[in-house]
Amino acid sequence: MQGTILHGPGDVRFEELPDPKILKPTDAIIQIKATCVCGSDLWSYRGVDTVTQPTPMGHEYCGIVQEVGSEVKSIRPGQFVIGSFFASDNTCIICKQGYQSSCINREPVVGAQASYLRVPLADGTLVPTPGYPSQELIPSLLTLSDVMGTGWFAADAANVKPNSTVVVVGDGAVGLCAVIAAKQMGADRIVIMSQNPNRQKVALELGATDVITERGAVGVSHAKELLNGIGADSVLECVGTLEAMMQAVQIARPGGYVGFVGVPHGIELNGLELFFSQIHLHGGPAPVRRYLPMLIDLVWNGKINPGKVFDMQLPLYQVAEAYKAMSERRAIKVLLTP
Ligand SMILES: [Zn+2]
Ligand SMILES: [Zn+2]
User: Fold this and answer.
1) Domain check: are 292 and 220 in the same one?
2) Are 10 and 125 in a shared domain?
3) How far is the centre of ligand 1, averaged over its atoms, from the C-alpha of 173 (Å)?
4) Is residue 135 domain-shared with residue 23, that is, in the same domain?
5) Quick one: 215 and 271 in the same domain?
6) Can you give the pTM of this predicted structure?
7) Residue 333 in contact with residue 310, Cβ under 8 Å?
8) Count of Cβ atoms closer than 10 Å to residue 20 Cβ
9) Which domain holds residue 164?
10) The domain spanning residue 326 has which CATH number?
């Protein structure tokens, strides 16, 4: 088969690779129908995270089950399935609490930007759709593998409630999905912090009510000004930089919540500032598996359309161009089809 390998900063290649095989009796092999580049792939693509050896890329996927191991019981060949970037058994004590991304048996899923993918712990990880999806549904279903599940977790972790006020920090695919989640949860005011006119437009289409273009201290005071002078009930941090995290912490009102889902790079918090902010902090790698059945249902019934975050589509063999376009911020997110 062919798949995507990162050889070093800026050096992504689509190349011939061995077909994935069942390695453990709980594995499944799926034929990829759609995959994409994640904002988190860009950390290593840009050389912020060091790449020491050729690395198979991609962790967002949906497709058709080809083969299952001898101990797989509920997943069957022919099903259209979606799974998270962390494989989980969905049966251990942590999974039962809804934190499948910290499953005691978790395994990362890697190499999804390829024609075929091995998914460990298939029964716990993969969720089948009610039937074979129409072509228009596939982009939205693909987002459930990561960005929509992560955006939902940001809103859930930040305790978004009907009539609450929400600020979303970050206008990438996760930030935009966080807007969708906040709207579904009934937020009254959804403010997106974005400097990019195209992304502002998408955010407003998806349910944002206000846009703040400033960052840093000016952005914080603008947000507070908009929200009764005291700040937001819920702030959804979807970037992972120090600047974004500080904005989130400072915009949340006393007693408010920050849900943080951007993978942290260089974030250190000041204890005294945190102490006096009196906020709730909850975040981490999203337990996407917890939300999959509910989100599949919302997409299947046309209630949400997170596929809108894809503003470019390329054949999988042009994956290098997909990385380039996202790294140069010419595209929000690129859909790749084998
Ligand atoms: Zn991702
Ligand atoms: Zn588990």
Assistant:
1) no
2) yes
3) 10
4) yes
5) yes
6) 0.97
7) yes
8) 21
9) 148-283
10) 3.90.180.10
Give yes or no: residues 265 and 194 share one domain.
Answer: yes
Span from the CA of 292 to the centroid of ligand 1 (angstroms): 15
User: Longest C-alpha distance within the chain, in Å?
Assistant: 60
- Rounded to the nearest 5 percent, the helix, strand and coil shares of the chain are 35, 25, 40
What separation in Å is there between the alpha carbon of 288 and the centre of ligand 1? 11
β-strand partners of 189: 165
140 and 6 within one domain: yes
The phi and psi torsions of 59 (rounded to 5 degrees) equal -140, 15
pLDDT, tens digit only, all 338 positions of the chain: 999 999 999 999 999 999 999 999 999 999 999 999 999 899 999 998 888 899 999 999 999 999 999 999 999 999 999 999 999 999 999 999 999 999 999 999 999 999 999 999 999 999 999 999 999 999 999 999 999 999 999 999 999 999 999 999 999 999 999 999 999 999 999 999 999 999 999 999 999 999 999 999 999 999 999 999 999 999 999 999 999 999 999 999 999 999 999 999 899 999 999 999 999 999 999 999 999 999 999 999 999 999 999 999 999 999 999 999 999 999 999 999 99
Structural domains of the chain, count: 2
> Does residue 228 share a domain with residue 124?
no
Closest listed ligand to the CA of 113: 1
Ligand nearest to the CA of residue 125, numbered in listed order: 2
Give the CATH number of the domain where residue 211 resides.
3.40.50.720
Domain boundary among 283, 300, 325: 283
Residue that terminates a domain, selected from 261, 283, 305: 283
- 187 shares its domain with 127: no
* Residues 182, 152: Cα–Cα separation, whole Å: 8
* 93 CA to centre of ligand 2 in angstroms: 6
CA–CA distances in Å: residue 13 to residues 9, 56, 109, 301, 316: 11, 10, 19, 37, 11
User: Which ligand has the nearest atom to the CA of 58?
Assistant: 1
Q: Exposed, middle or buried, 309 (CB in 10 Å: 0-12/13-18/19+)? A: buried
319 alpha carbon – ligand 1 mean position (Å):
15
